[in-house]
Specification:
The protein is an alpha+beta fold. The protein has one domain: 2-Layer Sandwich (Enolase-like, domain 1). The protein has four helices and three strands, in the order βαββααα. The chain has a three-stranded antiparallel β-sheet with strand order 1-2-3. A hairpin with a 5-residue loop joins strand 2 and strand 3. The chain starts with 6 loop residues before the first strand and ends in a 6-residue tail after the last helix.
């Protein structure tokens, strides 16, 4: 897939529960976002899930939403539709990516 020239890639990180297979395999949970720079629209997303269907449901929930403005909508969808042990980790990783996007847009240094 080719992304528009005005898109940016942002990774949000978080820790998952210790008994979560993602934590056992990768040490942490992360989500990569392709975002339209000007609008904040999420164009694509992928995470380091063990089960591929996890990426599918996250794509369904997140693609088309706005990384800067739609946290409450996304949070509600995650709570209602994602009933896995990584639920909190997904929300924390999203907030981490959102902060990086907002810092980038305002010219602040980004903590990678």
């Amino acid at each position: 897939m080719n992304y528009p020239k005005n898109s940016i890639y942002i990774v949000g990180n978080s820790k998952s529960q210790l008994n979560n297979p993602i934590t056992q395999m990768y040490g942490q949970f992360f989500i990569g976002f392709i975002v339209e720079n000007e609008s904040g629209k999420i164009l694509d997303v992928e995470c380091n899930a063990i089960i591929s269907i996890t990426n599918n449901i996250l794509k369904d929930i997140l693609i088309g939403e706005n990384i800067a403005a739609d946290y409450e909508t996304i949070k509600n969808h995650i709570i209602k539709r994602y009933l896995g042990s990584s639920q909190k980790a997904i929300l924390v990783a999203f907030k981490d990516a959102q902060k990086k996007y907002l810092d980038f847009k305002s010219g602040k240094p980004i903590e990678l």
